[in-house]
Design brief:
With 173 residues, the protein is an all-beta fold. Helix content is 0%, strand content 48%.
């Protein structure tokens, strides 16, 4: 791995995630800092200079964030811990949502699982997140996922391929 750049325009982060927010094929940064939740767009040169404010509240200290489908409307919604014992979310109502693309029918089994999770579809990238929004695993080009090292709990699985993103809730016994 080589050092590429310093993203000096981004404030002291409390949490960081990534998503192709503007559907250009590049991962953008989904961030929380101080009293803000923002997206910094990737301009193809990895200059994340365009900040899009998702939410700002001076009475909350933002915490961990996660991308999940809160309203079951085929779009990733923005969820974050608002500090002060609150969880907040912003519904993604974008008409150009990448989740609106026709996705293949995917079967994940067994779910709940004791360790090994199988898929009927091979994905380019699989990411596992805990409920606090921390990325726990990232694997590439596989149909089998070994979750045996993770404690029992509920996890978010984001699967990415050329057709877009697919998100599933996984239960580990």
């Amino acid at each position: 791995m080589t050092y590429e750049a310093t993203l000096s325009n981004i404030p002291n982060l409390l949490s960081l995630n990534s998503i192709d927010y503007n559907n250009d094929g590049l991962e953008d940064l989904y961030t929380s800092y101080a009293n803000h939740v923002s997206i910094f767009e990737n301009d193809a040169n990895q200059n994340f200079t365009n900040e899009i404010s998702v939410y700002q509240d001076d009475s909350l200290i933002m915490g961990a964030l996660q991308l999940i489908n809160v309203d079951n409307q085929n779009g990733l919604d923005y969820v974050w811990s608002g500090g002060n014992n609150t969880i907040a979310f912003h519904m993604n109502e974008s008409l150009l949502n990448i989740d609106d693309l026709e996705a293949p029918t995917i079967l994940l089994y067994p779910n709940p699982t004791n360790g090994i999770l199988n898929s009927t579809h091979q994905f380019q990238k699989l990411r596992i997140y805990n409920f606090q929004g921390a990325k726990l695993m990232e694997v590439y080009k596989t149909k089998t996922l070994d979750l045996s090292r993770l404690p029992a709990g509920i996890y978010t699985l984001i699967m990415e391929d050329l057709e877009g993103l697919t998100i599933h809730k996984i239960i580990k016994n």
